[in-house]
Specification:
Distance between the termini: 60 Å
Number of helices: 15
Shape: globular
Largest sheet: 5 strands, parallel
Radius of gyration: 22 Å
Bound molecules: zinc ion
CATH topology of the largest domain: Rossmann fold
């Protein structure tokens, strides 16, 4: 079994990347796009392995020296650059990170057939960094293969996109995640059912959550906080805003969880089979019956807007207050 066969989903992308090697039409640069945690980096690493595997068949074998070193991130000819994360959760690829990678790629390969440079989350490159990298992309040294990953190709400079073969991947369907969790990661069936739904197409999240119970607990805490806010009066809501504004590093994850919850409320009537928070169904159904559709939609949109604002330098406390004023009121269970 080759490492390609272990990739869950993304059949088209695997076929394209494996086919490029098989037909000896390897491009100099690839751009793998898709949402967070769907498997972009796994594809990039597997491609790097396939390019350098020493086995005679079923490449990449996953067990030869090249495959093992690449999987462990210790191959001398395969470099990976990842963004730095600021306290506010903002990710940045800086110009000196690009220059450092360029220097490594300029050196002759020590043992690889193809030197490989992987840059993850290229969306996080500022214009200077992207431009600095452009030269390498235009004239990659020797048999170098560059692999970039990004959430969306649209956010990148045209000059970057046009020099890459774009491999777009999509969220993995829930049943496929569920099956993979059971067969590959030996997760119990009912747990796999829940995690596959909560994953919302992100296999990486589901696997992490199956191994680290704090991820599930964090989500429960995030939803319980949302309920606290929804059942508070204005004074209470502003207190929450003030407190949360002091923990900006947690907001991105928090708001994304809330977003799935509001999204579920919107979907509830017509597409209830697509719910993410399946363990919240009863609460969601009750709220859907008491709230107006436009209140729900406004809360969804405002949460989305705040996520967008987080990336820019907004006053977080004010933005949170705005959001909490948009939220409808939830009656307490005993009211
Ligand atoms: Zn190998």
């Amino acid at each position: 079994m080759s490492e390609w066969q272990k990739i869950v989903g993304h059949a088209w992308a695997v076929e394209m990347l494996a086919g490029a090697i098989q037909h000896e039409r390897i491009g100099h640069a690839y751009l793998i796009t898709g949402p967070a945690q769907v498997g972009k980096t796994t594809l990039a690493i597997t491609f790097a392995m396939a390019l350098n595997c020493e086995s005679d068949d079923a490449r990449p074998c996953g067990t030869c020296r090249a495959c093992t070193l690449i999987a462990a991130g210790r191959h001398p000819d395969v470099s990976m650059v990842e963004p730095m994360i600021s306290k506010r959760g903002k990710k940045t690829l800086k110009i000196d990170m690009m220059r450092d990678l360029q220097r490594k790629l300029q050196l002759a390969a020590i043992e690889a057939r193809h030197k490989v440079g992987i840059i993850t989350e290229f969306d996080a490159a500022n214009t200077n960094a992207a431009n600095a990298f452009l030269k390498t992309l235009e004239e990659p040294p020797g048999d170098t293969v560059l692999i970039l990953t990004a959430t969306e190709a649209d956010g990148l400079l045209d000059t970057i996109k046009s020099r890459c073969r774009v491999v777009g991947i999509r969220p993995i369907p829930t049943p496929q995640i569920q099956q993979a969790l059971v067969t590959r990661w030996h997760v119990a069936a009912d747990q796999a059912h829940l995690l596959a739904h909560l994953a919302n197409g992100r296999l990486g999240w589901a696997v992490n959550a199956s191994q680290d119970p704090t991820l599930i607990q964090t989500r429960l805490d995030q939803l319980s906080l949302l309920r606290d806010i929804l059942s508070s009066n204005i004074v209470g809501r502003f207190k929450h805003a003030d407190k949360l504004a002091k923990q900006p590093d947690q907001l991105f994850d928090l708001l994304n969880t809330w977003l799935t919850w509001w999204r579920d409320l919107v979907l509830l009537t017509h597409q209830s089979d697509r719910l993410i928070n399946i363990d919240e169904r009863t609460v969601l159904e009750q709220l859907k019956a008491t709230w107006e559709d436009d209140e729900i939609l406004a809360s969804l949109n405002q949460t989305k807007a705040l996520l967008w604002q987080l990336e820019r330098n907004v006053n977080i406390r004010l933005a949170l207050e705005n959001l909490f004023l948009t939220f409808p009121k939830m009656a307490m269970a005993n009211e």
